[in-house]
Specification:
Number of strands: 17
Shape: globular
Distance between the termini: 33 Å
Order of helices and strands: EEEEEHEEEEHEEEEHHEEEHEHHH
Number of helices: 8
Structural class: alpha+beta
Strand content: 25-35%
Helix content: 25-40%
Largest sheet: 8 strands, antiparallel
Length: about 325
């Protein structure tokens, strides 16, 4: 199936459209949003030139399932999954931070630690840790939400001091973040996986804090296979993982880290197909269900028709 890398339509009641790195978000009547998970893929805050078929479906359906599995912890923005690649939800006022939570020293946190830093977002880390070590307890390392360019690490104290989030509300975000991470960890363990780190986004609607956007997807989370984790750790070997980190590693191996003057390596059909397979693999592992590839000659028309039909019934 051809990758969907762009949507362009005017829905009934549409008041605005926002194009993110991966998602196209339409505001409807100032009350609802339509979130289309496209097949775009980004790394190092750069949208790569080739789309990944079925990636949008994987992201949308994993997020939808986890929103349902965590709604007893916190209410969320989802109203309905109206298409394999699209969800309609409540329009919220987003908090301008992403709540990153880490149970293991991996990825960005490891790169900072390896460079000699022992404090990350105001959180002190002990000496003597190895890459992929389990942390004594999960830590929250928030980032700013940049409209353009790179998100930046920020501490709890800075967030409150700068008035980005009031202290009492930030305490609630921390509580929800840790509870969601615990639930995600438990679900992953049942599937033979380790939820290494992830991020959550929150917003407010009618005085309530709601969970927004995606949750526990391969774009927002890092998973290791539990089988063999300890052995690989002791041998200093790379962990088998299911996350977007393999895309970053492929880019770095080919001389690209998003720095000025660097060129994205060629994404051959074989590379693209391999990335699709990894996303499907994660879907099936984390959900325990077989991924059904929705074959369609005109995916955009299907998406538009499903969304427009639901909007008309909803209004």
């Amino acid at each position: 199936m051809k990758a969907v890398t762009k949507t362009d339509v005017q829905f009934p009641g549409q008041v605005s459209k926002y194009v993110g790195k991966v998602r196209d978000v339409y505001s409807i009547d100032d009350s609802y949003i339509v979130m289309v998970a496209t097949d775009r893929i980004s790394a190092f805050d750069v949208v790569l030139p080739e789309g990944i078929p079925y990636k949008g479906q994987v992201l949308n359906q994993i997020a939808s399932k986890f929103l349902d599995l965590t709604e007893d912890i916190i209410p969320n923005w989802k109203v309905a999954e109206v298409d394999p690649m699209a969800t309609i939800g409540l329009r919220c006022e987003p908090y301008k931070v992403e709540m990153v939570v880490r149970g293991y020293l991996a990825g960005h946190a490891w790169r900072e630690y390896k460079a000699g830093k022992r404090t990350l977002c105001g959180v002190a880390l002990p000496d003597g840790l190895r890459e992929n070590d389990r942390l004594p307890e999960p830590i929250i390392t928030p980032t700013t939400k940049a409209a353009e360019g790179h998100d930046e690490d920020i501490s709890r104290e800075e967030i409150i001091a700068r008035g980005i989030v009031p202290a009492d509300e930030y305490a609630e975000l921390e509580r929800y973040t840790l509870a969601l991470f615990q639930r995600g960890t438990e679900i992953a363990a049942k599937r033979g996986l380790i939820l290494v780190d992830t991020k959550y986004e929150f917003g407010r609607k009618d005085g309530r804090i709601l969970l927004m956007d995606e949750i526990h997807t391969p774009d927002s989370s890092r998973y290791f296979y539990a089988d063999g984790y300890e052995e690989r750790l002791e041998r200093g070997e790379r962990q088998r993982q299911l996350s977007k980190e393999f895309v970053r590693e492929w880019l770095m191996a080919n001389g690209f880290q998003g720095l000025e003057g660097q060129k994205v390596p060629e994404m051959t059909p074989e590379v693209v197909s391999g990335i699709t397979d990894r996303y499907v693999e994660l879907y099936e592992h984390i959900t325990g269900e077989k991924f059904e590839r929705t074959e369609c000659d005109d995916v955009l028309s299907r998406i538009y028709a499903n969304i427009e039909g639901f909007i008309k019934r909803m209004r």
